[in-house]
Amino acid sequence: MSVPDSSHGAARSWAIAVEGLTKVFRMGSTEVHALRGVDMQIAAGEFVALMGSSGSGKSTLLHLLGCLDTPTAGTYRLEGRDVSALSHDERAAVRNRCIGFVFQSFHLLSRLDALENVALPLLYGRRSGNAKERAVDALVRVGLTNRIHHHPAELSGGERQRVAIARALVNNPAVVLADEPTGNLDSQTGIEVMQLLAELQADGRTILMVTHDVQIAGYAQRMLTIQDGRLLNGRRNDDTV
Questions:
Q1: How confident is the model at residue 197 (pLDDT cuts 50, 70, 90)?
Q2: How far is CA 172 from its chain centroid?
Q3: Beta-carbon neighbour count of residue 39 at 10 Å?
């Protein structure tokens, strides 16, 4: 069963709203149905965890929500705008303006220091006028005031993930998509990163996080499970189980 609504009655402002979202990959004569009619809404300012085994469709769903790909069928509205059928360039503009990404493997460029890594989205988005100041502000926000000019090889795993989070925030996106953000971190550092994400949500960010760890998912307000390309019953973390 899909989970179309996270609210308890009152109308909500949806940051993410998908209906009938389907993705079929064709390999020769073979069709792989990665998503099978997903219906989902995430309220503005909500923190949602998405869980599922390998091959369940969670990465495909995250790619579609991040405007990295287009669906085979269905609609996707991001902050009220239908982005389902945008062109490649239009999707790139939406990604740069509205979405911040945090990845398990950080995706930092080794030849650049923390400041330069964080400023990259501003340069790609042709908004480089005050890139340095905005990148510094983002690094201060994640507690890396004294590591601004360190390269990734000089940083711990937790510090690298904080740089990645700062990079996700530098364009002031409304939505943050986090793909296994604690997957390469030790337990204590993972807790610190999750506390930071929870603070961002408290500041009004909408966060969708993919994770396989039930304890990490417990930081979210709501948990969804995807299996065989379909969303199953979800639950709020304050519900009695």
A1: very high
A2: 14
A3: 17
